[in-house]
Design brief:
Blueprint (H helix, E strand, L loop, with lengths): L2 H22 L3 H8 L4 E14 L2 E14 L3 E10 L6 E3 L2 E18 L5 E19 L9 E23 L2 E13 L9 H4 L1 E10 L5
Antiparallel strand pairs: 1-2, 1-9, 2-3, 3-5, 4-5, 5-6, 6-7, 7-8, 8-9
Length: about 210
């Protein structure tokens, strides 16, 4: 089965899952909450992100924050950048490493926010900058590099989040999602298909959580 078909199947499955949970979530508690004054709070957190580019692991550090309405709906943003550790890629036959930085919007919905362990279905949409450099020197020589390619890209990523409350204002978080990439068509280092990736994140979130 082609990579495109797998991507489309993953997206369709996630859309169906989101639709089902959102429909189920229209319970009496939400109706009662919407009839009363809206409650607002702010959450903020940091995370470590593991994904891949062309089947090579990529490590990212990021942060995100959001306004939470009625302890359920979140609207916010994120920013992250990768740790460019090694020359794991190739550019015109030379070892290369890549730098990526991106940010954008993050929104979603908490499921059973009053529980110590709860889920959220969310997604983010953002843009970023891709940069790369090639190694001109050999391994036993002093490091010499040159810029190889720079471009912009766009990504969207549906994901499932798990939050575990361990303190009144602290939750540990983990999630699993999939990134879809646009804008890398003419990049000679990596392309859209290579930037598409399953990803997982672990981190923490601070905020006034519901008991």
């Amino acid at each position: 089965m082609s990579r495109l078909k797998l991507d489309l199947q993953f997206l369709l499955t996630f859309i169906l899952l989101v639709s089902a949970v959102f429909a189920f979530g229209q319970d009496s508690n939400q109706v009662q909450s919407s009839a009363s004054k809206s409650e607002k709070s702010v959450i903020i957190g940091m995370y470590y992100d593991l994904s891949s580019v062309g089947q090579i692991p990529m490590h990212n550090i990021g942060g995100r924050s959001a306004v939470v309405l009625n302890d359920r709906w979140l609207f916010g943003g994120f920013a992250q950048g990768n740790l460019a550790l090694n020359f794991d890629y190739k550019y015109l036959g030379l070892p290369a490493r890549i730098y990526t930085g991106q940010g954008g919007l993050w929104f979603g919905r908490f499921i059973l926010p009053e529980k110590q362990l709860n889920l959220a279905l969310s997604a983010w949409f953002g843009g970023g900058v891709f940069g790369s450099e090639v190694r001109l020197s050999k391994e036993d020589e002093e490091l010499r590099t040159a810029d190889a390619y720079n471009t912009e890209f766009f990504q969207c990523a549906p994901q499932v989040d798990v939050f575990v409350k361990i303190l009144p204002y602290l939750k540990l978080s983990a999630n699993l999602g999939y990134r879809f990439t646009l804008g890398m068509k003419y990049n000679p280092v990596v392309n859209n298909a290579q930037m598409n990736s399953v990803f997982t994140q672990v981190g923490f979130t601070l905020g006034p959580f519901k008991d």
